[in-house]
Amino acid sequence: MPTPFHLAIQVRDVAEAREFYGTKMGFSEGRSDTCWVDYDMFGHQLVVHLNPNLGPSGKVQNYCNPVDDHAVPVPHFGVVLEIPQWKQLAERVRTFVDEFIIEPYVRFEGQAGEQHTMFFEDPSGNALEFKAFANIETELFAK
To answer: What are the residue boundaries of the VOC domain, all occurrences included (predicted)?
Structure first.
């Protein structure tokens, strides 16, 4: 098993983050306190931390870089999945995400590193990318 990563992000409201990551995304909750919550994000540890400076309507501001004719938000994070798992997640996400940053599609089609990808934001404006490769071991870092 690969070593899991730990990522801590800021959110504007812990209850709102619980609804998004726990209920809608379906990530199981681990330890928590009034200002933070741990989630199991496909075997990795995602922790949401309250940042009261974001305020009730505040969002993280992202910058975009061009990739494959799309504006990719920076920063962003997510997990690399198997294609069937990615397709299931894409179907689930379509039930609660009103607007994708980048709709689910195949990037670099027919090229080295071909991948399924999608981008969307959590309620605090954190950009998420989930991607999948036909063969993760050989294609993840293909040039």
So the answer is: 3-133
